[in-house]
Design a protein that fits this description.
single chain; 9 helices
């Protein structure tokens, strides 16, 4: 029987820009898996994400989406398979673009949309906005959308292409507690949908690791400290090494929180 390739694979990835930023990163995303990439500030998360989404060229190593190898495949095709939700993209969107136009722009993996949409595009966008419970935002300008609304629209933009994997770069940053929980519920609903892409959440907050996520990759100093199923990888010892502090991981009702301090019980974060 022919072996099915992973959805996404990274082998011996190395990134240098004056000094070593990432070193010998190995990672595989198989079908049915949803991942969290977690690390402290300066651990290499942003650089790794930029390499994985094609915005930074590695010094060495290999990245593949399915059987297609980065550098040997048209970047336009790569970006139709690899989606990104990031505030860095939001900053590039013209403030007068409507939510509808932002979502349409994702069909060809471009930033901003100019022109008149075709009837099939109009229909697809309307379906996407309903899917994200954002139909009422269709004609609202980007400048008037809240941070939580923008994150929904950016997900819709990404999903206009037939993605195999969707990276979410600290999507809860700037959200109040209610908006954060609403957004995480949206991700859970998305993960349950047929043909949903593999989701990869990049964060440094364990409280954002909701039950939909099955696996965790821990970064420290540009290297993979641990990687694998959430239950085995997300431990007090591993997190203490990641954040270079004595930490205790607590779990309540399938959610996590960290305690930090001399006895890992001084206060919660």
């Amino acid at each position: 029987m022919m072996k099915v390739p992973p959805i996404f694979a990274v082998e011996k990835l190395r990134l240098e820009r004056g000094s070593v930023i990432l070193d010998r990163v190995d990672w595989r995303v198989e079908r049915g898996q949803h991942w969290v990439i977690l690390g402290a500030n300066g651990s290499g998360k942003t650089s790794l994400l930029s390499a994985l989404t094609g915005y930074l060229m590695p010094t060495a190593g290999e990245i593949r989406i399915g059987a297609a190898k980065y550098g040997a495949t048209d970047w336009r095709d790569v970006r139709r398979s690899v989606g990104l939700v990031s505030s860095s993209l939001g900053h590039k969107i013209e403030p007068d673009q409507t939510a509808r136009e932002v979502v349409i722009s994702g069909r060809e993996a471009q930033i901003n949309f100019w022109g008149r949409p075709r009837p099939d595009e109009e229909k697809q966008v309307a379906q996407m906005l309903r899917r994200l419970r954002a139909g009422h935002l269709a004609d609202r300008a980007w400048r008037f959308l809240s941070q939580g609304e923008r994150q929904r629209i950016l997900i819709g933009r990404a999903l206009m292409a037939r993605l195999r994997i969707l990276f979410l770069d600290e999507p809860c940053a700037g959200l109040d507690p209610v908006a954060r929980e609403d957004f995480l519920h949206l991700l859970a609903a998305l993960a349950r949908q047929r043909h949903a892409p593999a989701l990869v959440l990049v964060t440094h907050h364990v409280e954002e690791i909701v039950p939909l996520f099955t696996h965790v990759l821990l970064l420290a100093g540009g290297r993979v400290l641990a990687s694998g199923p959430k239950e085995k990888t997300l431990t007090s010892g591993n997190l203490s090494a990641v954040f270079a502090a004595p930490l205790r991981l607590r779990r309540t009702a399938a959610r996590y929180r960290l305690e930090i301090g001399r006895h890992a019980g001084s206060f919660a974060i």
